[in-house]
Write a structure and sequence with these properties.
The complex is a heterodimer. By secondary structure, chain A is an alpha/beta fold. Chain A has six helices and twelve strands. Chain A has a six-stranded antiparallel sheet. The chains are: A alpha/beta, B mainly beta. At the A-B interface, strand 6 and strand 12 of A face strand 1 and helix 1 of B.
Amino acid sequence: MARAAIPRRLTWQLGRVVELIDETPRCKSVVVDLPEWQGHRAGQHVDVRLTAEDGYQAERSYSIASAPEDAHLVLTVERLDDGEVSPYLTDELRPDDELELRGPIGGYFVWERSLGGPLLMVAGGSGVVPFRSMLRHWAAGEHDTVPRLLYSSRTLPEVIYQEELTRFSADDGVDVRLALTREWPENWEGHRGRVDRGFLEEVAWAPAERPLVYICGPTSFVEAVAQTLVDIGHEPGRVKTERFGPTGT
Amino acid sequence: MEALDGNAIAGALFEYFGTEMTVARGACVYCGATAQIAELRVYGQAPGTVARCRSCGNVVMVLVSVRGLQKVHLSGFRLGD
């Protein structure tokens, strides 16, 4: 891509908050208008920087939830009770506020159409955020394979993008499988309990089909799923991982 | 403590090297294991951030921010291998 060959500086830029969307009791999507944004690839992230009145600054990295084709940049933020940045973004931020960020950042956990498929995405909790970007990017163009998304959440109300995932499933045929690890409705037909070897063997393509696998979530979740997939016979070089620390699923 | 991975230092490395680095390959000077930077184990709670080899656990990279300026010590990771 020509853009990648041009050196650019990673500079802080100011965006304007267009809208805030409640996704779950703990997660909000922040829609940002960024006049100087140069575009991104699905799966990349941004650094957000907050500056207090006394000059103290805190930075955190957030996955981009919007597709390269979307008009605005969208970040979906999970509120961490002891966090320095996320409670401000989920509780204090209002439309028309300014938000300082830099990006896009990262080139490893990226999917673009030229990489092909079959594409398997495995999300733990808010690890689903970059997959919304990948799914929207996939749906926006021509495609000959249909992705699968395996998404592990503690409970059903904590599942982010429920309506949109249902649409991807109903309209585009994306195979979306939810695993609920803590509690589930009485008539729950999805997976109950942790993502284990049996569930992965049932949902993932066979290793011989060489799926391109992306796993994003809390560290322990990512390590367990990646190891199990390699044990099943998937090529380590086709399993890409992104860990965001100790948040439980 | 649970580790992050090299994706978490993408911004700091971009700032230092002036380009995206997480897909860059290199070799651990202690055990020879090759990896992309995104695959390293990253610990951010120390004074500064350290990246360790996923195979042998040795510290291969140290990142510190000094008065707003990003410093990176690639002591144990040979880029380009």
